[in-house]
Amino acid sequence: MTKVLLVGEPLIRISPSHFQTLGNACQAQLYFGGSEVNIARTLSGFGAASSLLTALPDNQVGRSFEAFLRQSGVATEHVQWCGDRVGIYYLENGFGCRPSQVAYDRSASSFSLLGPKGLDYGKLFEAVTHFHFSGITLALGKVSQDLVEQLAIEAMKRQVCVSFDLNFRSSMISVREAKRLFSHFAQYADLIFGMEPLKRNQADQAMFDRDKADQGAVKERLAALYEAYHLKAIFHTERHIDDQGVNHYLAYAYDGQLHRSIELSTPVLQRVGSGDAFVAGCLYQLMRGQAIFAALDFAAATASLKCTVADDQLFVSANQVDRVMRGNREVRR
């Protein structure tokens, strides 16, 4: 039996309807999310056991968020009740030549108050085989960094597999600080998703330019980081949306040799959360003992399928992802 413990901030997304902008009086839609919430919910949909360490306010909003998690099968016994608010982000969906825009309103959220003191680490890690955290959580500040570091240390003590998604947000942290901070936390990881905000050596301060990198450059950097941080595997995704709004998705993994996923294309309804879906798909297959190339294909298909739903996360069975991999788009009757 495998089980994932995730730590991260719950977020509420508010998006104007019908591609409107925030500057206009408009209707809006609300979604529950946050990177680790997204991963936990997708894993639960696949049938994997997931538990979330997070914080919510003890009010109607916080209790509604908890109910959303429980209804999805995510274990909520480690939710800490403190503070007064859930973080919010506003997403204006782009259209045509107008790009999408995000604005955060997450300062003084309940999760930002959650530090490492007072937690029962024995209960937190009971039956846990995998622990996951993200660069977004680290970018929230010192309190969250201390929390993640203590959890990573506890995971290593218990020989729990540790995964780290480097998801970098330039509005939250500078490139230089991200390279310093993420490189420090990479020492705890067995699996890393992403490669740009990591230093391969002390002179490596610039962000890796993925747009100009060919497969040879990708392989060379993945191999260097794999060796530098003594990883079990490191993953990299390539995705772009063409002028017709079609998302093209491809991924690589390196575990001593380079693996390349199948390439998938799909029109995009909502791209938010597709990176989290990739992580969830990959973790799910690795937890089941599947080979890394099989996990890579499944993860790419999970990310592509996420682009077809409006929510922040994908919540489907593993069989539905398998059908995407097989190219089966017939109506299910």
Automatic annotation (TrEMBL):
Keywords: Kinase, Transferase. It comes from the Bacteria. GO terms for molecular function: kinase activity. Signal peptide: none annotated. Residues 1-313 form the Carbohydrate kinase PfkB domain. InterPro entries: Carb_kinase_PfkB-like, PfkB_dom, Ribokinase-like. Belongs to the carbohydrate kinase PfkB family. This is Sugar kinase. It comes from Streptococcus equi subsp. ruminatorum. The lineage of its organism: Bacteria, Bacillati, Bacillota, Bacilli, Lactobacillales.
